[in-house]
């Protein structure tokens, strides 16, 4: 997940999502990949990001034992791999600085005074 690298920012993660357009793209489920990724994800920011993109099916808390349930794997898979922020912005939680997202690509370039 991306974070704000503005000079002086101490809490630039997680960036808040302002979604204008979200696209869903079908991806084949790979349980082994999901189980590996689960340990690398900070769950609360992930749930918040999913909700900001209109997907509210994830539980507020999760633990590795939930990965043995197909229903949980499907929901995790959908949020992680099938939701794409096409248009909108990523917002620094400390400064409120908006990083625009156009055609699915975030522009994280900093202004001269932010470096």
UniProtKB/TrEMBL annotation:
One Pfam family in the UniProt entry: Trm112p
UniProt cross-references to InterPro entries, sorted A to Z: Trm112, Trm112-like
GO molecular function: protein heterodimerization activity
GO biological process: rRNA (guanine-N7)-methylation; tRNA methylation
Domain of life: Eukaryota
PANTHER family: MULTIFUNCTIONAL METHYLTRANSFERASE SUBUNIT TRM112-LIKE PROTEIN, UPF0315 PROTEIN-RELATED
Family: Belongs to the TRM112 family.
Assembly: Interacts with TRM9.
Protein name stated in the entry: Multifunctional methyltransferase subunit TRM112-like protein
